[in-house]
Design a protein that fits this description.
Elements lengths: L31 E5 L3 H7 L4 E8 L2 E8 L2 E7 L4 H16 E2 L4 E2 L7 E10 L10 E9 L10 H4 L2 H11 L9 E4 L2 H7 L4 E7 L20 H7 L1 E2 L2 E7 L2 H10 L3 E11 L4 E2 L4 H14 L1
Parallel strand pairs: 1-4, 1-7, 7-13, 8-10, 10-12
Antiparallel strand pairs: 2-3, 3-4, 5-6, 7-12, 8-9, 8-13, 11-12, 13-14
Helix pairs in contact: 2-7
Length: about 290
């Protein structure tokens, strides 16, 4: 890990002196962070707060920090995709663990709890839509993001990664997959009563998740092949677009990460939820209580 002053082109601040994309100062960040994709869901989370200390926004990145039953919590929207997660996790860590004045890492490491609450498409027939929740014990990334960081060798589950590539006959002209585990401590606290399994994280909504509109797919069997994959009793329960980046970057930087999603579609039965918002609200309230 770097210990030298970080150049201005790499650790970027805005005109206020806040971290560039998130528009945050260190005092604005709580140790417990609820991540949502949709900026509109930040207000759904903070509506449960007893007090709100800060409201910040830059582009789709909205942050509300306040207290819930005496515990300080930050709600933050990430937007969609692993590329946005790369920005969010790196900048959250910078806010927590880099001295903005000296541009050097702080001596005392601050650990964040990063809990993503989102929506997903189920990949197993027993997972219904709407009032069904999937907690990701592992994420398998089809995005390749983790490999851009040298520390990936310390966090990737190599046996699961190798098995996935081998058993799926994964095309070598696509980004190399990687598997990573969530925080066991957060999983034990927050995932009670939900479906548990592996989450497949794709770098897109259409082709990478087996959807074809006007273009042919390189890997048209990706969904049925993923549905059949198992490793040490774990099956791939769902598709989404963020968790592999969250788990891998979070682990590399020393943070606890977990994803829990509402299943809004089932790709096996081809069903889709008409109104899943009450179930998202239920997930938010339950998570706040368990945190």
């Amino acid at each position: 890990m770097n210990t030298k002053p970080i150049p201005g082109s790499q650790l970027v601040f805005n005109s206020e002196g806040a971290i560039y994309h998130l528009n945050l100062f260190p005092e604005m960040l709580a140790d417990n962070v609820i991540l949502v994709g949709d900026p509109g869901r930040v207000a759904m989370v903070s509506a449960n707060f007893d007090t709100i200390e800060y409201k910040r926004q830059n582009r789709e990145l909205v942050t509300h920090t306040g207290t819930y039953k005496g515990k300080r919590i930050t709600a933050l929207s990430t937007g969609m995709g692993t590329d946005n997660i790369d920005i969010v996790v790196n900048e959250l860590d910078a806010v927590a663990n880099i001295d903005f004045q000296t541009r050097t890492p702080k001596k005392e490491h601050r650990t964040l709890n990063l809990v993503r609450l989102g929506t997903c498409g189920a990949l197993q027939p027993e997972i219904g839509v709407e009032d069904s929740y999937v907690a990701s014990r592992y994420a398998i990334g089809l995005d390749g993001l983790a490999y851009f960081y040298k520390e990936h060798t310390e966090v990737i589950d190599k046996p699961m990664t190798d098995a996935f590539i081998r058993d799926m006959h994964y095309p070598t002209d696509l980004p190399k997959p990687y598997a990573v585990e969530c925080s066991k401590e957060l999983f034990d606290r927050l995932a009670v009563g939900y479906h548990h399994g592996i989450t497949a994280t794709s770098p897109g909504f259409y082709g990478p998740q087996g959807r074809s509109l006007r273009m042919e797919l390189t890997y048209p069997k990706i969904n049925p092949d993923i549905e059949k994959f198992q490793f040490n009793g774990w099956k791939v329960c769902n598709f989404e677009m963020e968790s592999s980046a969250l788990f891998s970057l979070g682990k590399m930087l020393g943070h606890n990460c977990l994803t829990i999603c509402v299943a809004v579609a089932n790709r096996v039965s081809e069903t889709f939820a008409t109104d899943y918002h009450p179930y998202v609200e239920k997930l938010i309230k339950t998570t706040l209580e368990r945190l």
